[in-house]
Each structure stands twice: as structure tokens, then as C-alpha cells.
Write a structure and sequence with these properties.
The protein is mostly helical. The protein is built from nine helices and no strands. Helices cover 71% and strands 0% of the residues. It starts with a helix and ends with a helix. 38% of the residues are buried. The model has no long low-confidence stretch (mean pLDDT 90).
């Protein structure tokens, strides 16, 4: 499995330098300041959207699920990295084409993919259309990380799985805490924040 992961990485990363215009697009997509910010802004924008009060509240819950899922996904990855330290492709392989900076944290699972897919999953449970749009951004971000030499394919797949599963667990857990959420929303409405 690891060998197939490495071969897929080498094949995909081997295209770097073939088309300058494509490399330039991937440099933008792999940036920590483009798609992650766009994903977070898209999810946060839902806080203000809704034709009815109940639709707006559903959208606000989607943002909350995604944000909590992203935070706890990062915690889960930190715990995994304490026991599993997979080196980045540019450290373990020769002739890796790196289009971005060289991170020093472990490669598996991908924090970047976990964040993006947690946001997509959190929004998706309440707003399918926006959840799918954020999911497309998550896929683009993850693919760009592999293409740019920062992760193996299994790293981003593992990160995506962590993000989705952790978000789902907290979505279910917060569903059981509905009275607490209702009170929280009441307080936010009193302060004109929801």
C-alpha cells in the first residue's frame, strides 16, 4: 500500500514543470492563504444567510459544526502525530518537485485536508449546496498539496477521513446538546449576533 502511494505520488508530482501555467495555478491553490481562507470565509458567510429564521439558524449550525470539527480534527492529528511521524515526500524521496515551502511537521495525516474536509462536512449536514462547493475547494486544496510535493496521496486521504469523521461525531454530539445550543443562540440573538 505504501509503495503504491509513493508511486502515485511520483507519477503525479512528475508533471511539475511540464506546463508553467498549470504550475502557477497550483502554486495559488496550494497556498495556506488562498483556499483555506476562501473555505473559512464561505462557511462563515452562512452565518448571515437565510430566507427564514430557521434556514438562517441551520446555516449558522453548519458553520459551528464545521468550525468545531476543524478544531477537533487538528487536535486528533496532533495526537496521532505524537505516535506516528511520517516524513514528507521531499524528505524521503529524491527528485521531488516542491512548489511551495517545506513544512516540518509530519505528513500523515494532512492537517490541511482535515481542516478543509471538516469545514465541508460541517456545512454539508445543514446546507448541501454550499457543503458541496466547499468540498470542491477541499478536493482542489488536497490535490494541490500532493502535486506540489508536500504530501503523499494517503496523507491527504487520511486527513480528509479524520476531518469528516471527527466533524460527524461532533455533529451527532451537539445534536444531543440541543437545549444548550438553543440557549446559546438565544444569547447571541439578544446581543444581535445571530
Amino acid at each position: 500500500m505504501i509503495e503504491a502511494d509513493q508511486q502515485l505520488f511520483e507519477w503525479f508530482n512528475g508533471f511539475v514543470g511540464t506546463w508553467t501555467w498549470f504550475d502557477n495555478i497550483m502554486k495559488v491553490l496550494v497556498s495556506d492563504f488562498f483556499l483555506p481562507v476562501l473555505i473559512a470565509a464561505a462557511a462563515w458567510s452562512l452565518w448571515f444567510v437565510g430566507r427564514t429564521g430557521s434556514e438562517r439558524r441551520r446555516n449558522q449550525l453548519g458553520f459551528i459544526y464545521g468550525a468545531i470539527g476543524a478544531g477537533f480534527s487538528n487536535l486528533a492529528i496532533t495526537l496521532v502525530n505524537g505516535h506516528l511521524d511520517r516524513a514528507r515526500p521531499f524528505i524521503t524521496l529524491e527528485d521531488v518537485n516542491v512548489l511551495f515551502y517545506r513544512p516540518t511537521d509530519p505528513s500523515f495525516p494532512s492537517n490541511a485536508a482535515a481542516f478543509a474536509f471538516a469545514m465541508a462536512a460541517g456545512v454539508w449536514v445543514t446546507n448541501r449546496r454550499m457543503g458541496m462547493a466547499i468540498g470542491v475547494g477541499a478536493v482542489l486544496f488536497s490535490v494541490a498539496r500532493v502535486y506540489a510535493g508536500m504530501h503523499f496521496p494517503l496523507d491527504v486521504a487520511g486527513g480528509a477521513l479524520v476531518g469528516i469523521l471527527v466533524t460527524y461525531v461532533f455533529y451527532r454530539a451537539l445534536g444531543m446538546l440541543q437545549p444548550v445550543l438553543n440557549f446559546g443562540f438565544w444569547l447571541l440573538r439578544q446581543a444581535f449576533l445571530a
